[in-house]
Each structure stands twice: as structure tokens, then as C-alpha cells.
Design brief:
The complex is a heterodimer of chains A (483) and B (383).
Chain A: E1 17-20, H1 24-34, E2 40-44, H2 57-63, H3 65-87, E3 91-94, E4 96-103, E5 106-112, E6 115-119, E7 123-126, E8 130-132, E9 145-147, H4 148-158, E10 165-171, H5 173-184, E11 188-194, H6 198-204, H7 208-211, H8 215-230, E12 235-236, E13 239-245, E14 252-257, E15 260-265, E16 268-273, E17 275-277, H9 280-284, E18 289-292, E19 297-300, E20 313-315, H10 325-342, H11 348-366, H12 369-375, H13 380-384, E21 391-393, E22 398-399, H14 400-408, H15 414-421, H16 434-445, H17 449-452, E23 464-465, H18 466-470, E24 473-474
Helix pairs in contact in A: 1-3, 1-10, 2-3, 4-5, 5-8, 6-12, 10-11, 14-16
Chain B: E1 7-10, H1 14-25, E2 30-33, H2 42-45, E3 49-50, H3 60-71, H4 73-77, E4 88-92, H5 95-111, E5 117-120, H6 121-127, E6 137-141, E7 145-146, H7 149-162, E8 166-168, E9 173-179, E10 182-187, E11 191-194, E12 196-199, H8 205-212, E13 219-221, E14 224-227, E15 238-241, E16 247-250, E17 256-259, E18 265-267, E19 272-274, H9 277-290, E20 298-299, E21 301-304, E22 307-309, E23 316-319, E24 326-330, H10 340-352, H11 376-380
Parallel strand pairs in B: 1-2, 1-12, 2-8, 4-15, 12-24
Antiparallel strand pairs in B: 3-7, 4-6, 5-6, 9-10, 10-11, 13-22, 14-17, 14-21, 16-17, 18-19, 23-24
């Protein structure tokens, strides 16, 4: 083996740092570390850089300039990050799905093109971002109901616009953005039902002055609202008791709006109730998590540098808490600087100097969160007391009623429910129902959710063919420990 | 809760619950302590094999009695535990393997056991149509089967409670004292008291033994299981192999469970386990070699539970060495599931009748302090 001597983990020929996810956090982290000559492997499951927020940004610019303009300046920002990663020494592996991380010693298992591989880095940055919160309302598993974020991803990656009449329902900043983008792309929007009510706007108003410090977010939000109204899209606020109806496929969305019942006939329902950190990997590793009750989600416990309860393992971006793309990129840089300094490539003072700007910018952008969190609080009614017939675990088709019965029969932990009802045992590994199940137990037993806990997430976090496991390729020698 | 009882059992897994069922049925007051919710490790995360096939001869008297108890398990614990008499196979891949099976059969005949039979290549294909073409035959036990570990553990716990035993969960034992003829068991926030103590602490059994004054060698191991999504039915019996580590079966809902004793990593203090995929690589290859139909099957979940294993791979069952009012039943790694119904019954006999109705001498904790060392070859048989 040529090259660096043992004992200099920064020059580990395999990978001193493995970064998982090539969204804003992952791209910024990879680039920042590579600048100091540290060997970085960037793994991402998509065919191109960008993550969800900047999905397919390079190709969209090149081949679908109209869509590129439609998706806006925030989306275009991703291209600059992608260019920098491309120009660096980062070893970027696309189409790579990470299915297990061992903590002791550190090892990252992933598959690419049907080949399973193992890498043994010194440090890991998990930048797997957010996922849409599941919205278990009656009928949400009917064909014709999907996440609004998923629809946006289709627009980004292939320019696909849903056919037929589309209804959009839920809350959160992305809801209006997707409505606006689809409407401008020529989609037949029959209405947007917001679960956010006027009362939420009034509650959020006192937080406005602080949020003004990050006023670009607010302008964006108002702009979207006006744009939709100008286009004549029907906006209904304060929607309650939503249910999706239809015979074998979605036909209409029914909900209460004030005292009246509204029915929106449509062919497709796009639902969105905000995003939550994707904690599958950090949970699978057994890292410490905490409950963030302003937004009702779990997030890994992190130091100010983004380091988890396992030394040498970092989480950057929305996977550590929802703060958006700009903050995610800063968090990526911050985590990398900490690792680079730890590996001995820069001094602590150099690290602090370099990180200062990111910390400052990040703080500015975080100002808007208290207001967004209040305005777009999680839809408590839907999760905490779902109707008995509502399916909670879609992989194993377990209903809220079956879960309640099992709790009454003595299953008081998410894991015992898993064993009893098989909820969370399907191919998604509890990703879809984990939050709902913990919440239902918490409500039923009147126990704080952080005492209820979460599913014990087992690897592989995505299904792994047996023949791939049998041909597992172990790359290089184990790296030096991160001590 | 009144913290005084006739017997305190440490460990609310399968064996602790089974003993509680039988002791409580005698009208005795039983408290079962557990550091967690009970049955989180061995009891609920094992393969669920109800097996006499290839079992160590010393365990067979117990296993035969257990087998007849499993046949009416619903009468014993109020639930059928998902028990299914599917048959178990031990597959031979070549002549050497066949010779080993023949030797085993001879030994069984000499000892007077007739639950195992040798089947040839064609008969094997009737039992397992998808088995690889090179497989030459197998040892078969028709009356073996499997059950659902979670359902079984829950049923045993529930039956113990309905018989009158009390479960004290989240009570990790911090210390054990003896005062005026009574055991004083201290947990983080309670004291429990009883004249008799039964140690069913599984992989933590040596620690409890230590507190009583008994030294028992035990290592904690974390055998790994893998599971696939439901597949079209292709296999009825549970399958093992003579020369490879394998435990392979298809559950009634179509999912395939793969075990075989490949070990994960563990932290006994926190209970955290970690699957070791470098080890499972071989497990995947074994499965594909013996059942080519599995080549493209997907693994959706893998897990390890912590089990206690003694140097000779036999469990520790019997009276304490330093105190006659302490009893042990732990360290069953990879063969405790089938034995659970009978061992609980034997513990109740040992405590209250002064003797067990079946021979348990080979499992005495005293064996580790004898000069005679067991032949490791024989111990292998039980793995």
C-alpha cells in the first residue's frame, strides 16, 4: 500500500471521514474537510448530488432550464455547493445506500450496484436530513394519497407534474411552496386545506419581531400566499377532522372548517404536516436522543459541534433538528472543522476562527424557528387520538385500535407493541409509524413521551439481499480510533 | 407491595416465569424481580426452536418430558404460544456428515432414545423440496417444532401472574444479604425478603450467583437472528446442518428466520447489542448453499439478544453451593427455550419436595469445581 503512514488518520487512504447524505449539510461537510487534505468518502443514495432539497440540481439546470427557474433561487443555491464538491478531492459515491453503522469499532456498511461494502473510517458525519411526518388520518393509505414533499421531489428529479385534480392538505412552510410550484407548473389544484388556524397565527404574532431578524423566510411565506391567491387557488384555513375517502382509491378529502363540513373532490391528495429528523441511522446505532416538544419529534443529542453521544460520530443538518438548508450547510462545515482539528490538521484557534462565521450565520437563521414552530405546530389531534380504524403501521397494516388494545393488554413499550402487533416490523423498519406509536402509548398511559421511548431500530435499515451480504466486501484496514 | 415472599425469583424471562408458575401453583407467595420488563434477551430473541434433535444426552430426559408438555402447552400456560409440530432436520452434505449422523443414531439407541431417525436423499426432498441437490440425507425428529418466542414469554409471564406470582419490573438487583435466615434483596428503591432465592437471571446469572457466594463461570454471548419478509411457503420443518452453523425455518406467515449462533457484539452492563455483519456474511452463504431459493431473499431485520453460556454449554440447574436455600436455573444459551416448561416444574420440586423427578446432577454448579473436565467433543453435540 502506498501513501500515508499508519498513525495519521487524517490521511487514511480509505476514508478518514465518511459523510452520509449529499444534501446541503453533507456537501458542505465533505468540502470543508477535503480542503484540509483529509480523505473523505461521501455516500448518497441518489444518482446525483443535492439531497432532497437540491434534488438533481445539476441536471435540472442543464436539461430543464424552465423547471430550474420555477424551483427558485433557494434550489439554485444547491448548484454552487455541488460545484465545489465536484472540484474537490472528495470521493463521492452515488447510488450508495447505507444500511448499518457499527459503533465499536466504527464501520459503515453500504450497498452500491448490488455490491455490499464495509468502510472503516475514523469519524462519521450523518447528514441524512429530514423526512415527511406521517399523517395517519382515516384513508391515508388509499392509492392516490401521497406526501407533498414526495410530489415536489418528482418535480425536481423528473419534471413530473401530477395529472388530474389535486388537493393539498396539512401545514408547514413546504405546503404552500409545493402548492405554488405545482400551480405555476400548470397543475389543476382544487384547493389547499391548511390545518393551521387563525388562532395559530395570533399565537405566533408576538414572536414576529425576533423572526424579522431572518425576514427573508417571512417574505417568502407571504409571497407564496399572495401568489396562490392571485392564481385563484382556494385556500381553506383551520381544517380539522380530515379524512380521505374513496372506494379502493382516493376520491375526496373531507374535513371540518369552522362549523361546516367541506368536501374537496380530487384524484390526488398531497399531504404534508412538516418534516421531522430522519433518525433511523442514529437510532440503529443506539445513540442518545431527546424529545423536542415544540415540534413533537425526536432528535439526537448533539454538542454544539454536532457530535453525538458516541465520540467521532456527528450529525449535521435536519437529521439533528429541523432548521432548513442554510443552517444545515453551516452545521456541516462546523462538524467538519471539529473533526479536522481533532485529527490534528488545524489548531483549535484556527478551527474556532473558521467556524465563527458559520456559528454567526446559523444563529441569524435560527431566529425564525420559534415563530415557525408556533405557527406550524404539529397537528396534535391527528396523532394523539387517531380514530380506531386508522392504519398506523402501513407495512403490517396495524390499526390504531389494535395498538390501543395491545396497550390495554399490557404492552407499554414501543418494542413490546412491535412484538405483539408486528407494527414497525415491515420493510420501512418503523420509519413511518415510530412517532405515532410512541405518541399513542404516551397518551394512553399519560406518561411523558421521553419515558415511553422509541422503537429499537434494527439494521439493516433498508432491506438487504442475502446474496449481497454473502459477498460483502471489506475495504481496507480499520482506521485509528477517534480518541 | 408487600415485599416479603416465600420465594424470590431473579429474572422474569421464560425460566423465571416458568418456575413462578409452578411455585405459585403450590400456594406459595412468589415475587419475580427483573432489571427490565423481563424476557428481553434470550427468552424473546431466540429462534423459538422446540427441539430434541441433536441435543446433549444429559439434557434428553428433561427434553423428552418438556416435549410432552409442549404438546399440551395451552393447558399449562393458557395460550398455544404459536407452537407448531413441524419436525426438525439435521442435514448431511456429504459422506462424512452421514457417518456422524449414523454415530449419533447408534448412541441414541444405546441410551434408549428413539425420537431421531435417519432419512435418505429422497426422503429429505419430501421434507424440504428446495434443499440443495448435494445434500445427502438428514436426521429427522418428527415431533420437534417451534413456537413464537414473544408469545411464549408473554404467556408464561401472564400465567405466573394469574397463578398469583407478583412481577416487580425495573428492579435491578444491587445487593443480596442474608439476615436471620432470610435473603434480603436490595434493588435501587426497594428491599425484598424471602427465605428462598431462585436465580433465573440468564446471561446475568453469574453475577447473581456471585452475590449469593457461588462462583459459576459464564460468558455472555449474543447470537444473531436474521429475518426476511413473507415468502411463498417452501419449507415446513426447522433445518440445521451437521457441519455448518445453521438454524433455518419458515414461520406460518411466510417469513424466514435465519439463526445459527453467529455472534454479535454486546455490552452486558447496558444490554446493548450490535450485529456483526462480517460474521453474518458466512451465515448468508450457508443459507444460499443449502437453499438456493434464498439467493435473492432480502434481510429486513437482524438482531442479537444476550445469552449466558457456560464452558461446557450446558445450563446451570440446581441447589446453590454455599447456601442450601439458594437455587439456580440459568445459562441456557441456545437450548433453553424447549426446556422452559419442565425446568420450572423441576425447580418447584427441588425446592419443596427436596428432589427433582428427573436427573439434574449433570447441571449442578458444582461441576465447575470438580477435577474431572468434560470432553469438549460431547459438549459440541448440544450446540
Amino acid at each position: 500500500m502506498t501513501g500515508p503512514r499508519a498513525g495519521n488518520p487524517a490521511k487514511n487512504p480509505d476514508a478518514a471521514i465518511v459523510v452520509i447524505g449529499s444534501g446541503p449539510a453533507g456537501m458542505a461537510a465533505s468540502h470543508a474537510a477535503a480542503e484540509y487534505g483529509v480523505s473523505v468518502v461521501l455516500l448518497d443514495e441518489q444518482p446525483a448530488l443535492g439531497g432532497q432539497i437540491y434534488r438533481n440540481v445539476e441536471m435540472t439546470k442543464r436539461e430543464r432550464p424552465d423547471d430550474y427557474d420555477l424551483l427558485g433561487v433557494d434550489y439554485q443555491e444547491g448548484r454552487h455547493l455541488a460545484d465545489r464538491v465536484k472540484a474537490s478531492a472528495v470521493r463521492y459515491i452515488c447510488g450508495a445506500t447505507v444500511w448499518n453503522i457499527e459503533t465499536d469499532p466504527l464501520a459503515v456498511y453500504y450497498s452500491v450496484n448490488g455490491q455490499a461494502r464495509k468502510l472503516a473510517p475514523t469519524a462519521v458525519i450523518i447528514a441524512t436530513g429530514a423526512m415527511e411526518r406521517s399523517v395517519p388520518i382515516p384513508g391515508w393509505t388509499l392509492p392516490g394519497v401521497m406526501g407533498a414533499g414526495a410530489a415536489q421531489v418528482m418535480l425536481k428529479s423528473s419534471g413530473m407534474i401530477p395529472e388530474g385534480r389535486v388537493a393539498i392538505a396539512g401545514a408547514g412552510p413546504l405546503l404552500l411552496l409545493v402548492a405554488d410550484q405545482l400551480s405555476r407548473a400548470g397543475c389543476n389544484l382544487v384547493g389547499v386545506a391548511e390545518t393551521t388556524s387563525y388562532a395559530d397565527y395570533i399565537r405566533a404574532a408576538p414572536l414576529l419581531p425576533r423572526a424579522m431578524r431572518a425576514s427573508s423566510y417571512l417574505k417568502k411565506g407571504l409571497g407564496l400566499r399572495f401568489s396562490l391567491m392571485r392564481r385563484g387557488v382556494r385556500l381553506l384555513s383551520g381544517a380539522k377532522n380530515m379524512r380521505a375517502e374513496g372506494d379502493r382509491k382516493f376520491e375526496r378529502l373531507v374535513f371540518n372548517c369552522g362549523r361546516r363540513e367541506v368536501a374537496l373532490d380530487a384524484d390526488l391528495l398531497l399531504m404534508h404536516e412538516g418534516v421531522v429528523p430522519n433518525v433511523q441511522l442514529s437510532r440503529q446505532m443506539g445513540l442518545e436522543h431527546e424529545w423536542y416538544d415544540r415540534q413533537d419529534y425526536w432528535r439526537p443529542v448533539l454538542s454544539k459541534w454536532g457530535e453525538t453521544s458516541r465520540k467521532g460520530v456527528f450529525v449535521a443538518g435536519d437529521g439533528g433538528g429541523i432548521d432548513g438548508a442554510t443552517v444545515a450547510a453551516h452545521n456541516g462545515t462546523i462538524a467538519s472543522l471539529k473533526i479536522v482539528q481533532h485529527l490534528g490538521c488545524i489548531s483549535e484557534s484556527e478551527r474556532n476562527r473558521r467556524a465563527e462565521k458559520s456559528f454567526r450565520e446559523k444563529k441569524k437563521h435560527e431566529q425564525v424557528r420559534p415563530m415557525l414552530d408556533t405557527l406550524f405546530g404539529p397537528p396534535r389531534y391527528a396523532f394523539q387520538s387517531p380514530a380506531r380504524e386508522t392504519i398506523i403501521c402501513r407495512c403490517s397494516e396495524v390499526t390504531a385500535g389494535e395498538i390501543s388494545d395491545a396497550i390495554a393488554a399490557g404492552c407499554h413499550t414501543p418494542d413490546s407493541l412491535k412484538s405483539k402487533c408486528r407494527s414497525g416490523m415491515g420493510a420501512c423498519q418503523g420509519r413511518m409509524c415510530g412517532l405515532s406509536v410512541s405518541t399513542i402509548i404516551s397518551r394512553a398511559l399519560e406518561m411523558p413521551i421521553d419515558q415511553v421511548g422509541y422503537y429499537n431500530i434494527r439494521s439493516p435499515i433498508i432491506p438487504l439481499p442475502l446474496c449481497e451480504l454473502a459477498a460483502l466486501e471489506e475495504e481496507g484496514t480499520p482506521s485509528s480510533a477517534y480518541e | 407491595m408487600n415485599n416479603k415472599a416465600d420465594v424470590i425469583i431473579v429474572g422474569a424471562g421464560l425460566h423465571g416465569s416458568s418456575a413462578a408458575i409452578h411455585i405459585a401453583a403450590r400456594g406459595r407467595r412468589v415475587i419475580v424481580l427483573d432489571k427490565g420488563v423481563g424476557g428481553r434477551h434470550s427468552s424473546a430473541s431466540n429462534a423459538g426452536g422446540v427441539r430434541r434433535l441433536w441435543r446433549h444426552p444429559d439434557e434428553l430426559p428433561l427434553a423428552c418430558e418438556a416435549a410432552s408438555m409442549w404438546n399440551h402447552i395451552e393447558e399449562i400456560v393458557g395460550d398455544n404460544c404459536g407452537y407448531r409440530q413441524s419436525g426438525h432436520l439435521k442435514i448431511a452434505e456429504n459422506k462424512t456428515d452421514i457417518a456422524k449422523l449414523e454415530d449419533r443414531l447408534t448412541t441414541m439407541k444405546q441410551l434408549g432414545f428413539d425420537h431421531e431417525e435417519l432419512i435418505d436423499r429422497d426422503e429429505l426432498r419430501k421434507w424440504a423440496p428446495e434443499v440443495a441437490s448435494h445434500c445427502a440425507g438428514a436426521l429427522l425428529c418428527r415431533e420437534d417444532g417451534f413456537a413464537s418466542p414473544f408469545r411464549t414469554t408473554s404467556a408464561f409471564q401472564n400465567k405466573a401472574v394469574s397463578n398469583g406470582a407478583e412481577l416487580a419490573l425495573n428492579q435491578a438487583v444491587a445487593g443480596i444479604d442474608k439476615k436471620a435466615g432470610s435473603w434480603i434483596i436490595q434493588t435501587q428503591d426497594h428491599l425484598f425478603e424471602a427465605p428462598i432465592l431462585l436465580n433465573c437471571a440468564g446471561a446475568w446469572g453469574d453475577k447473581i450467583a456471585e452475590m449469593i457466594g457461588d462462583t459459576v463461570p459464564l460468558s455472555a454471548v449474543a447470537p444473531t437472528m436474521m429475518v426476511t419478509p413473507p415468502m411463498p411457503r417452501f419449507l415446513e420443518p426447522v433445518v440445521g446442518a451437521v457441519s455448518r452453523k445453521l438454524s433455518f425455518k419458515q414461520a406460518p406467515n411466510g417469513i424466514v428466520l435465519i439463526g445459527g449462533g453467529y455472534r454479535g457484539k454486546l455490552d452486558r452492563d447496558t444490554g446493548f447489542t450490535q450485529v456483526d455483519y462480517s460474521a453474518l456474511k458466512l451465515s448468508a452463504q450457508t443459507v444460499i448453499d443449502l437453499f438456493p431459493i434464498m439467493k435473492n431473499a432480502q434481510v429486513v431485520r437482524a438482531w442479537s439478544g444476550i445469552e449466558g453460556q457456560t464452558p461446557d454449554s450446558l445450563p446451570v440447574i440446581g441447589q446453590g453451593l454455599s447456601d442450601a436455600n439458594a437455587y439456580h436455573a440459568f445459562g441456557f444459551s441456545s437450548h433453553g427455550f424447549q426446556l422452559a416448561p419442565v425446568v420450572g416444574k423441576l425447580m418447584a420440586e427441588l425446592i419443596y419436595d427436596g428432589a427433582s423427578s428427573l436427573p439434574i446432577e449433570p447441571f449442578s454448579p458444582a461441576r465447575f469445581h470438580d477435577v474431572e473436565i468434560r470432553n469438549p467433543e460431547t459438549a459440541q453435540l448440544s450446540a
